[in-house]
Design a protein that fits this description.
The protein has about 110 residues and is mainly beta. The chain folds into two domains: about 80 residues, SH3 type barrels (Roll), CATH 2.30.30; about 30 residues. The chain contains no helices and nine strands. The strands form three sheets. A five-stranded antiparallel beta sheet has the order 6-3-2-1-7, with no helix packed on it. A two-stranded antiparallel sheet has the order 4-5. The two termini are about 30 Å apart. The mean pLDDT is about 95.
Length: about 110
């Protein structure tokens, strides 16, 4: 699988549009462009059985976020507070910026 351009970046607010956590929102913690997956804060939480190690001396069951497909999340616009499609606009200085297709406002910080 090749690396593809993604519509979300780290620290974006996203809404899950498909799967067991449908309708929940959270912040993107990690992005895996080669795999087309993202890790979202407190979404898709799985239980991992771990052996005792230096970080966790007693071992046990640890809950952590698992990656989910990039196609199952949608960016939440900061100004209209809705999950929205985004477009890319070239600014006067030649740089690119993402914008909300509903309210036509810039999404990038």
């Amino acid at each position: 699988m090749s690396i593809v351009k993604l519509h979300v970046k780290k620290d974006d607010m996203v809404k899950v549009i498909a799967g067991k956590d449908q309708g929940k929102t959270g912040k993107v913690l990690r992005v895996f462009p080669a795999k087309g997956r993202v890790v979202v804060e407190s979404i898709n939480v799985v239980k991992r059985h771990t052996r005792p190690n230096q970080l966790n001396p007693e071992g046990g069951i640890v809950e952590k976020e698992a990656p989910l497909s990039i196609s199952n999340v949608m960016l939440v616009c900061g100004s209209c507070n809705q999950a929205t499609r985004t477009g890319i606009r070239v600014l006067e200085d030649g740089s690119k910026s993402r914008y909300c297709k509903k309210c036509n406002e810039s999404v990038d910080k």
